[in-house]
Adenylate kinase isoenzyme 6 homolog
Amino acid sequence: MLCTHDDAFEEVTSMASRKLPNILITGTPGTGKSTLALSLLESLNSQSDNKFSHICVGDLVKHKDLHIGYNQQFQCYDVDDDKILDELEPLLDLGGCILDWHCSEIFPESSLDLIIVLRCDHQILFKRLEDRNYTPEKINENNDAEIFGECLHEALEAFPNPGQVVELDSENLDNLESNTDRFITWLQSWKSDNL
């Protein structure tokens, strides 16, 4: 039987008995993915039995050359999905990864235990992207993606298991605190079900 890269990755990942789950925090650029990831990391790693790692996939793409070049028109790297998966596979097998990236569809279903899709009011998002000095075209493109819920739709299509994808508001510090608390509650449930 011919085994594709994705099939092999799913098989290895599903066979691994992880002591900690793998989480993807996704959403349109500017919705607070890195902020939530760092909040989770701080809260979780203060407990002795939790040792999570934060992996910003965009930074990994840039620093490990997991791309096929820079796209001037869209001001981003054209990523190489296979290179990304090859780099992340050993880490995901161990568990305890908090991935932070705007894309969810490249990951095999069994590699992630929870996908958090952050959502933000488009006016707040516009200001955040403006503060990052994004071009007007890039601001509009990302704002449209948020308005139409593209990251949520992609996650729901790639991960159809009920409860595996969670949509959370990410507009202020109250949201950040409640999202962190909600994840800690989810983690306790995951541990009781899986360990």
Residues 52-94 form one domain. The first helix runs from residue 5 to 15. The two ends are 33 Å apart (CA to CA).
